[in-house]
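Database export, one record per block. Field names are fixed; values are copied verbatim from the stored entry.
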Amino acid sequence: MVNQNLTATEIGFTHEDFAALLDKYDYHFSPGDIVPGTVFSIEPRGALIDIGAKTAAYIPIQEMSINRVDAPEEVLQSNETREFFILTDENEDGQLTLSIRRIEYMRAWERVRQLQAEDATVRSGVFATNRGGALVRIEGLRGFIPGSHISTRKPKEELVGEELPLKFLEVDEERNRLVLSHRRALVERKMNRLEVGEVVIGTVRGIKPYGAFIDIGGVSGLLHISEISHEHIDTPHSVFNVNDEVKVMIIDLDAERGRISLSTKQLEPEPGDMIKNRDLVYDKAEEMAAKYREQMLAKQQGLTIAPADAEEVVGAEEAVEAEEATTEATEEISAVAATEEATTEAETEELSAVAVTEEAATEATEEATTEEATTEATEEISAVAVTEEEIPAVVEE
């Protein structure tokens, strides 16, 4: 039988040795670490979590989810084991502060970056609107749709609760900016059914000094002034009126920028027919479009056309030059729009103190429990302030 009355000297292991052994195997936790933990006590506004530290760690309710949480039980259950993000160092009581929201936040940004890289179309419901556009949630993150990228005839206020297809315009985790486009998603879907050289029937929805916007089945294309006729035109108003039904040919599809470029110039049997005899242009539209496609195909294949067809060669060259001129004009317009957009953005970012909605303001206030959370809330409100002026491109008038 073992003698239970052995002295410390006989055992060779003291209380000091035991304390040193505990210190040796004690885990050291740092902010930013992701550790497993078990819920052992749920409180009204938070929960105590065992992560293996000397003192139980604490997670406040506002750090339990990327979404709004009214009660801890919505997220956590007693004895549940899961991952936690260490948010802060130990306080004076040796207690660490944890977060689930931060893990969800990092993974959400990773997911939207992946979706953007895949050029994916996502769907999300509008939960609020403001003077600049509409607010949605993507993977739990708050996203903004500028007004110029909303393709609907409904007033913005009526969009709340409606689910929209969206494409990514900007994904910037550092600036906390997630900007999306409804227009681009619709244009891409429509573009999948359209081809360059195709003749379509549309309706004039708006006329500007640089061209006319034509509605072709729910999306708008730009008929630039240089593509209306081979003859000089002072203003598109001299040729078209709003609500006119027109036949146009598609000369460019830019899915990345969501732009459709149109032409009636390439449909003219004789230069100036759009001004002198529009009905003839429409009657011969399919025939002229077929010739245009043949010329473009021959150019792409590098085929040599016989001298007898010299007149057609000249026509092809003029068509190419016209297309290049349209592209240059579109790029010039895009550059102006980008400048206007940047100016507008700089002005609207000063309005970060404006509350987007009562819900957004409440969420931002709740998130302001730490200096870092306050910064995020402010940046989210700033991001909502992005407003774009009318871009002379494929945009609903």
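Remark 1: Residues 107 and 297 are 47 Å apart (CA to CA).
Remark 2: Residues 304-397 have pLDDT under 50 and may be disordered.
End of record.
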